[in-house]
Design brief:
The chain has a six-stranded antiparallel beta barrel. It contains seven helices and 17 strands. The chain is globular. By secondary structure, the protein is α/β, with parallel strands linked by helices. The protein has helices spanning 13-24, 52-65, 75-91, 98-119, 177-181, 192-201, 223-231; strands at residues 4-8, 28-35, 68-73, 138-141, 146-150, 156-160, 183-184, 238-241, 247-251, 274-279, 284-288, 294-305, 315-320, 328-336, 339-349, 356-361, 364-371. The termini are far apart.
């Protein structure tokens, strides 16, 4: 059996070049795009990841490369596993990371299941044929900037991509050993300019395509408007209060706020105020000084150990509490197979419930979970 690879193609330059590189590595390649939503349903008119216009771009690239191409209708999966979780988190006063959920439930799980069913003869829905040599019968490749290595003990390890400005290892901490064993990240050893050069050299339509910095289903970043439109609900106003309970004003509904926020409060105060906490039970937003946002400890749940098994004792590492946050030295205390306590050497600003915390040993992802 020839090596087969499914390449997740979002319609951007990164996944386009990933498809080219996997083809050049000798795989029989099928490009696949997940249709995640209807543009009109969620109010999207511009080009975003996995929108209808991006499907056209991905198809064009597949034709240019001479590879097979398929679109999977995953709108129900995306709504259930990504959008509904996103909305529910905001309604509970948390700040979620939908890209992590999309990777976990769709790109490296459901998409692989669908492709294995369709591309591998006789494999059924869940049972795959035996691996021939070092290669699984079907690999999945994406345009993420990260690296997978295999240790001497046989464990698959996740490492940062070499381009520090594009490294996406933070979003991949939830991958299991089984998923890592069948995954390819061909861009991990490249920089973004090098990727664009390859795309231009191959005449790919996506070579100069701009990349969005927004969540794909909320272009422009107006989360509150999206949630209101999606749910059809009105989120009632309530009190802004200080830590001692003094009412400072009226907020517009808790979905409009996240920990650390200063702008958009609509208050005329003598000094800047920041969101310290969100009390959903009493529909209150607690405000205070910037200095009050700094804390040293957090607890994370749904923790997945990646490049190492769960340690049997406390360990030293560095941790990142959001994607663009600098890693900080900390002590990692395992509480169970899926939960940890992290104590930072120095207080960190705006540790936020619902965000992902990812633990690193140098360039290697040790694991990650959801801040509780």
């Amino acid at each position: 059996m020839n090596k087969q690879a499914l390449v997740g193609m979002s319609g951007g330059v990164d996944s386009s070049v990933a498809a080219f590189l996997v083809r050049e590595a000798g795989y029989d390649v099928t490009g696949a795009t997940m249709r995640l939503f209807d543009n009109e349903t969620i109010g999207i008119t511009d080009k975003t990841c996995c929108s209808l216009s991006s499907i056209d771009d991905a198809c064009s690239v597949a034709n240019r490369l001479g590879i097979s191409y398929v679109v999977y209708d995953m709108r129900d999966d995306f709504r259930r596993d990504v959008i509904d979780r996103f909305v529910s988190a905001y309604e509970s006063g948390a700040t979620p990371n939908p890209c992590v959920a999309c990777n976990k439930y769709l790109k490296f799980d459901r998409l692989y299941e669908l492709s294995a069913r369709d591309l591998l003869e006789g494999c059924g829905d869940t049972v795959l044929p035996e691996t021939d040599g070092d290669f699984p019968p079907l690999s999945i490749a994406t345009g993420h900037y990260a690296v997978i290595e295999k240790s001497g003990s046989g464990r698959f390890m996740l490492r940062k991509g070499i381009d520090p400005g594009k490294d996406q290892s933070y979003f991949l901490y939830d991958l299991t050993q089984e998923q890592l064993s069948r995954t390819l990240f061909p861009l991990g050893g490249l920089t973004k300019p090098e990727v664009r050069e390859i795309a231009e050299s191959q005449g790919l339509v996506t070579a100069k395509k701009r990349e969005s910095q927004d969540i794909c289903f909320v272009p422009g970043g107006d989360y509150a408007s999206f949630i209101c439109g999606y749910t059809g609900h009105d989120y009632p106003p309530g009190d802004f209060v200080s830590r001692d309970g003094t009412v400072m004003g009226t907020h517009k509904g808790i979905i409009n706020y996240t920990i650390g926020q200063r702008k958009g409060l609509g208050l005329a105060l003598k000094k800047p105020a920041y969101v310290l906490n969100i009390d959903t039970d009493r529909n209150r937003v607690i405000l205070g000084d910037n200095e009050e946002l700094f804390t040293r400890e957090l607890t994370a749940e749904s923790f997945n150990w990646v490049s190492t098994a769960m340690p049997q004792s406390d360990m030293r590492a560095s941790a990142r509490i959001r994607y663009r946050h600098h890693e900080a030295p900390a002590t990692i205390i395992p509480l169970s197979e899926t939960s940890v306590k992290i104590i930072f050497d120095e207080p960190q600003r705006a540790i936020t419930r619902g965000q992902s915390v990812v633990v690193y040993d140098g360039d290697y992802v040790l694991g990650g979970g959801i801040i509780k």
